């Protein structure tokens, strides 16, 4: 490719601005979609996490009984530090809520209790100040804190003098020793209950080694030694777990196992298959774009046959003509790629706005070297692909055929290649259209799934009771009961509930533990786990949770401190499959994290807490007096719009404690919508790709039909002059246009039967392939083909036959 070829290619595109613009915009769509999805994959999967030596970071999960991916206890963390040789160090975090009071309005904050070495594992240095020292971790040590950049700017006006000052956190004065960098956030796997944004970090104020060995709450992250592999580290952890089981009865009873996974791989574990599937879909769009542009290039090549014939007559060799055509197509492709960079930025903003789980934790990146190189590579491939067919046509150039004006030989068989391209792009469109149709159907089914509660007209909020002002369970119980009574008197309120964990809220650690029938043999203990929830009477009513048998908690249960529990139907069926659970004694972990025996007084329908489609664990509900928690959520069912309740809630809570922050006032439906975010993300993008593919297919069929009509104008004029009816001509042209569409649809059906089963691994609500939907897809493509073919045919039939005969 020389400068003269490039200059000539530019002149030719300027002479055909409409053709150039159509090609550039079409390429921008195809390359832009691929660039955007690759940018997400690069950010989530390929790009190293924004931590020092991030490739050496790994998450350590405990596996207890049948439960995998569980947190660890303090003694486990200490044992790992003492026994591991494959890791340089281990750090831990436990996320709770805290209250900032003093200057300004009281504010509830995300509070990260950490080991002193946790933050240095993930950041080179703070923005201001310093990290914690080992001397500040443990019981009786100084009260210190590190703030996030966002909190520092919002609450303290970005004052650099904050270092060394004291802030009141959950009633305690803490000295600020550092401020984290602006870009810093925690990127932990789903299910770890570690949100990306933590407002305040404080060191553990208790001795981890002295904690109960079976009290698991810490999320552990470690840094591998230089040169060590995950496989080697896993083998070492297997040995450590074996040692711990043999030395401590708590670990033996639970069957403790340890698992380590690369932090990079674990973070993208759930979203990675969906991203690669979407990348495959955008690849299909790119192939459709190339097919369309190849047909445009072929059509334009036919228009330039006389030009090519003249160049050949003047001595131009076939390879010289081929090089010129490829140069023009590559120039078009790189212009389209440049436009695609701007379009991909808009697509990326859409992707991040959808906030699917996994992707929302990643950091969006701009156009860096990797993205630019990918865009350039795809642009070059596109230019070669759609320029290949006209170049091959030029290589088979028949100079004599061109110079013999009107030669019939030049019109024979010219539609074979375009029809093949139409068939290919229809096959790819069929796959995308079928996928999006079935995903949309599955997503609509997801909207109809009963989560076990009604979220309509329910508003929620959270409080975190500081232990200095509420030092005893009695004080906490008194406040929560008073708040429930006051809130019940608000206008339009039907019922008020209080619960320790809201459905689909992963911002606080989950509480789950073993359960078994009282008196069960030892081999049946420490095998099954259930989610534990602390509630006040009124919670089930506020969410319209259905009782299968038995009764709700009553005030007399709390006042008498009765050891009672409500269980869900999953637990009842597991322990008592053919009998009632009412009155049965159940061995559980109580609110003080010790074994206790309760009486089952009621069975409810299972409530979906973690996923709309997967019943993760059974559930045990305990009265608040038996399981006092500082972090509690209120659920208020109202006849009014939930959005109007916030001022009333703040007013009523301030009457009880003006310094207690009220956080996350939002409709319960917002949590349910968040549970659908990943499915919505996949469905929206797949539907968008299918729409683009369908539009491109329509354009391609329309273009081929226009080319066919131009080639056959004289023939059609002769047929009309000899008495052929317009409807016969119309039917003939439709048959010729629909034939490659029908064949392409059959090929697409076969490809769909291979591709669609893969979606069951990406989208749990995706159950099976419905033949009826595939029939609709097939009919849609046929209708689109008929519409695309009918427009140029009808335009021709409206002309005078004599004008058609004069066409050449």
Report on this structure.
With 808 residues, this protein is α+β, with helices and mostly antiparallel strands. It contains 25 helices and 23 strands. Strands 14, 15, 16, 17, 18, 19, 20 and 21 form an eight-stranded mixed beta sheet that branches. Helix 14 (416-448) packs across helix 23 (726-755). It starts with a helix and ends with a helix. Mean pLDDT is 84; it is low at 405-413.
Give the arrangement of secondary structure elements.
Layout: H1 3-15, H2 17-46, E1 57-64, E2 67-70, H3 74-83, E3 87-101, E4 107-114, H4 118-122, E5 128-129, E6 144-147, H5 149-156, E7 166-169, E8 172-179, E9 200-203, E10 219-224, H6 230-247, H7 249-254, E11 257-262, H8 263-267, H9 272-303, H10 305-313, H11 318-354, H12 369-395, H13 399-403, H14 416-448, E12 458-464, H15 473-488, E13 493-499, E14 512-514, E15 516-517, E16 529-535, H16 539-542, E17 547-550, H17 555-559, E18 564-568, H18 569-575, E19 585-589, E20 595-604, E21 619-623, E22 631-638, H19 646-656, E23 663-667, H20 668-675, H21 677-711, H22 713-721, H23 726-755, H24 771-797, H25 801-805
Parallel strand pairs: 4-9, 6-8, 16-21, 18-20
Antiparallel strand pairs: 1-2, 1-10, 1-11, 3-4, 3-7, 3-10, 5-8, 6-9, 7-8, 12-22, 12-23, 13-22, 14-16, 15-19, 17-20, 18-21, 19-20
Helix pairs in contact: 1-11, 2-9, 2-11, 2-12, 9-12, 9-14, 9-21, 11-12, 14-21, 14-23, 14-24, 15-19, 21-22, 21-24, 23-24
């Amino acid at each position: 490719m020389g400068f003269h070829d490039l200059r000539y290619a530019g002149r030719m595109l300027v002479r055909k601005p409409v053709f150039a613009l159509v090609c550039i915009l079409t390429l921008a769509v195809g390359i832009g979609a691929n660039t955007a999805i690759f940018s997400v994959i690069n950010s989530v999967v390929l790009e190293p996490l924004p931590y020092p030596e991030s490739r050496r970071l790994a998450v350590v999960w405990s596996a207890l009984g049948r439960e995998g991916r569980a947190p660890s206890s303090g003694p486990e963390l200490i044992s790992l530090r003492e026994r591991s040789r494959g890791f340089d160090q281990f750090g831990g975090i436990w996320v709770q809520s805290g209250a900032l009071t003093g200057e300004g309005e009281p504010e509830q904050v995300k509070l990260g209790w950490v080991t002193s070495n946790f933050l240095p594992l993930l950041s080179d240095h703070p923005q201001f100040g310093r990290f914690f020292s080992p001397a500040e971790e443990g019981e009786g040590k100084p009260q210190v804190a590190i703030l996030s950049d966002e909190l520092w700017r919002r609450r303290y006006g970005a004052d650099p003098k904050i270092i060394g000052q004291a802030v009141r956190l959950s009633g305690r004065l803490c000295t600020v020793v550092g401020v984290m960098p602006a870009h810093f956030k925690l990127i932990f796997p789903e299910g770890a209950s570690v949100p990306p944004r933590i407002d305040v970090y404080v060191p553990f104020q208790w001795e981890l080694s002295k904690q109960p060995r079976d009290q698991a709450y810490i999320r552990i992250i470690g840094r591998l030694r230089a040169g060590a592999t995950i496989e080697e580290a896993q083998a070492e952890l297997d040995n450590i777990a074996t040692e711990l089981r043999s030395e401590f009865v708590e670990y033996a009873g639970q069957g403790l196992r340890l698992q380590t996974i690369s932090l990079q791989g674990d973070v993208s574990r759930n979203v990675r298959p969906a991203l690669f599937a979407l990348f495959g879909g955008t690849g299909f769009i790119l192939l459709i774009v190339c097919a369309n542009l190849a047909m445009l290039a072929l059509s334009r090549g036919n228009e330039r046959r006389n030009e090519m014939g003249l160049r050949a007559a003047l001595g131009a060799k076939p390879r010289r003509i081929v090089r010129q055509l490829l140069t023009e197509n590559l120039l078009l492709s790189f212009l389209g790629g440049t436009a695609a960079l701007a379009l991909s930025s808009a697509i990326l903003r859409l992707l991040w706005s959808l906030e699917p789980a996994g992707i929302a934790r990643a950091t969006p990146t701009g156009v860096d070297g990797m993205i630019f190189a990918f865009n350039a590579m795809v642009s070059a491939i596109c230019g070669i692909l759609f320029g290949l067919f006209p170049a091959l046509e030029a290589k088979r150039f028949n100079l004599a055929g061109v110079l013999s004006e009107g030669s019939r030989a030049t019109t024979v068989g010219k539609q074979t290649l375009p029809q093949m391209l139409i068939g290919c792009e229809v096959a790819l469109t069929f796959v995308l259209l079928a996928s999006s149709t079935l995903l949309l159907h599955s997503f609509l089914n997801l909207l109809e799934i009963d989560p076990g509660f009604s979220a309509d007209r329910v508003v929620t909020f959270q409080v975190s009771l500081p232990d200095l002002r509420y030092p005893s369970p009695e004080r906490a119980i008194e406040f929560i009961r008073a708040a429930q009574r006051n809130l019940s008197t608000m206008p339009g309120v039907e019922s008020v509930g209080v619960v320790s964990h809201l459905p689909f809220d992963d911002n606080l650690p989950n509480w789950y533990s073993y359960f078994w029938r009282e008196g069960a043999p030892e081999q049946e203990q420490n095998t099954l786990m259930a989610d534990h929830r602390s509630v006040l009477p009124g919670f089930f009513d506020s969410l319209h949770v259905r009782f299968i048998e038995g009764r709700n908690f009553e005030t007399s249960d709390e006042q008498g401190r009765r050891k009672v529990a409500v269980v869900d139907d999953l637990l009842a069926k597991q322990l008592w499959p053919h009998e009632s659970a009412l009155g049965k004694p159940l061995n559980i972990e109580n609110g003080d994290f010790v074994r206790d025996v309760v009486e089952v007084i009621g069975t409810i329908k299972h409530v979906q807490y973690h996923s709309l489609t997967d019943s993760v664990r059974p559930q045990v509900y305990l009265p608040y007096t038996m399981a006092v928690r500082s972090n509690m959520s209120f659920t208020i069912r109202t006849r009014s719009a939930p959005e109007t309740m916030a001022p009333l809630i703040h007013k009523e809570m301030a009457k009880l404690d003006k310094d207690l922050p009220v956080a996350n006032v939002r409709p319960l439906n917002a949590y349910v919508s968040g549970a659908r975010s990943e499915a919505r993300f996949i469905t929206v993008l797949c539907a968008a790709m299918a729409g683009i593919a369908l539009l491109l297919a329509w354009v391609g069929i329309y273009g081929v039909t226009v080319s066919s009509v131009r080639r056959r104008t004289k023939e059609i004029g002769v047929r009309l002059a000899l008495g052929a009816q317009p409807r016969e001509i119309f039917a003939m042209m439709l048959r010729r246009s629909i034939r490659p569409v029908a064949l392409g649809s059959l090929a697409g059906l076969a490809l769909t039967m291979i591709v669609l089963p893969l979606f069951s691994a990406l989208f749990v609500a995706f159950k099976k392939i419905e033949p009826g939907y595939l029939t609709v897809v097939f009919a849609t493509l046929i209708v689109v083909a008929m519409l695309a073919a009918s427009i140029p045919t009808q335009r021709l039939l409206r002309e005078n036959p004599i004008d058609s005969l004069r066409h050449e």
